[in-house]
Amino acid sequence: MESIPISPCVGCPAHLSASQIASKYGIYTNVISRWRDQALAALPGAFNDQAATDQAAKEVAWEKEREELYAEIGKLSTQLAWMKKMWSPA
């Protein structure tokens, strides 16, 4: 699939309309509109230091939760192995 070119200037005369892009790349115009809306909503935060700080805090929290879950899995695996050993006919 061919990548969609990004115009440096949305208002430039060379800029294609959503229907032209949809026709050229075989996708629906509402998909293009949704992508455009998502990009416009996300762009102000892309240059904001607070967004990067928030993302870093989320990643730290996810990593901590992941470590706790792996510890719980290890504990339960050990308990299961012990129970199998205790209850298996010798």
SSE blueprint and pairings:
Elements: H1 18-25, H2 29-46, H3 49-87
Rough shape? elongated
Number of strands: 0
Distance between the termini: 61 Å
Low-pLDDT segments, ≥5 res: none
**Average pLDDT rating:** 83
Report the biggest beta sheet as strand number plus sense, adding barrel if it closes.
Answer: none
Tell me the radius of gyration: 26 Å
Q: Could you say which structural class the secondary elements and strand pairing correspond to?
A: mainly alpha
Q: Percent of residues in helical segments?
A: over 70%
The number of domains is 2
Number of helices: 3
Determine the strand fraction and express it as a percent band.
Answer: under 5%
Order of helices and strands: HHH
Gist of the model:
With 90 residues, this protein is an all-alpha fold.
Provide the descriptors you would attach to this structure in a database record.
single chain, about 90 residues, mainly alpha, about 70% helix
Overall description:
72% of the residues lie in helices and 0% in strands. It is mainly α and 90 residues long. It has helices spanning 18-25, 29-46, 49-87. It is elongated, with a radius of gyration of 26 Å. The protein has two domains: 1-47, no CATH class; 49-90. The model has no long low-confidence stretch (mean pLDDT 83).
